[in-house]
Design brief:
Length: 301
């Protein structure tokens, strides 16, 4: 089974559109569609439902989506191990990443790091719920040295270090047909009587504090915090059911049916992103973090 076809399928499912998947993969929409069609022919079942709004996963497609993510992750690990075995001169660093964790700022900093050529950096695909990966209790980090994630992920773990790289303000992702989608900036009073979804897994402390603060304004704004994490299905749910979603500016292009709007929350709310690693990981990992700090100095952070 061609990994390129799997990557094209995953991109199409994540973006909900062959066109947007093509933009990410630098392919034309017909080429994207052709690869997905070939994959479906090889497996023998439809994986995506095509409609006027784009594409969505079939029941079988959801199963293949989960399994193929794990397959690509294992492929990444195998490739990283192979490269590590041959990277004699360079310091091998395995960086865990996931689809919902924005890496733009990391990429900008690392490309300016004076000593970046000393390292052989391998990206390891991780589940969207990075909590399951960085849990010190589960003894993970066996396949990675450093993981890129949000700060709240590590709140309940011990022996974990976190190095912040950037911070994103909390905004509101509004369904395209919602009246608030027409506003350039949403006021807190505009949300009176509205229900806002704030997935709480990995962000429980932030969600609790945010909810208490919003309730204190007495505007009957209902903040629902289900025990789920941010993934493509959450964005699909909000777009299809007209539900507002607490989001970040870096996720504005995740779903074509949702429009990101800044909000005057009455105070500043933000989510930090950076790198986390086990405190017992030293040597190359510590040197990698120092090299990243040097890159931050170059870009003026």
């Amino acid at each position: 089974m061609d990994s390129k076809m799997i990557e094209t399928f995953l991109a199409s499912a994540n973006q909900g559109s062959f066109t947007k998947a093509g933009e990410i993969l630098s392919l034309t929409p017909p080429n994207v569609m052709r690869q997905v069609n070939l994959l479906e022919e090889e497996i023998g079942v439809p994986l995506l439902i095509r409609n006027s709004k784009g594409v969505e996963l079939t029941v079988a497609g959801r199963v293949f989506y989960r399994e193929s993510q794990d397959l690509l992750r294992r492929s990444s690990i195998a490739a990283a191990r192979t490269r590590r075995a041959s990277a004699v001169a360079k310091k091998a660093v395995r960086l865990g990443v996931s689809a919902m964790n924005p890496m733009q700022e990391f990429n900008r900093i690392w490309r300016c790091a004076p000593r970046r050529d000393e390292f052989a950096l391998s990206l390891i695909n991780l589940p969207t719920d990075v909590n399951e990966t960085v849990s010190a209790e589960r003894g993970d980090f066996r396949e990675t040295d450093v993981v890129f994630c949000s700060g709240p992920v590590i709140d309940r773990f011990t022996e974990i270090e976190f190095f912040p790289l950037c911070s994103y303000p909390l905004i509101c992702a509004v369904p395209a047909g919602h009246p608030l989608a027409q506003k350039e900036k949403i006021l807190l009073s505009d949300l009176k009587g509205e229900t806002v979804l704030f997935p709480s897994r990995s962000n429980s402390r932030l969600c609790l504090e945010f909810n208490r603060n919003i309730v204190a304004y007495g505007l009957d704004i209902r903040v629902e915090t289900p025990q789920i994490f941010y993934d493509q299905q959450v964005f699909n749910y909000c777009a299809e059911n007209g539900v507002l979603l607490i989001s970040l500016p870096c996720w504005n292009e995740v779903h074509p049916g949702l429009i990101g709007r800044p909000v005057d929350w009455g105070r500043d709310w933000a989510l930090s992103y950076g790198l986390t690693w086990r405190t017992d990981k030293k040597g190359v990992t510590a040197d990698f973090i120092r090299a990243l700090q040097e890159g931050m100095e170059v870009v003026g952070l």
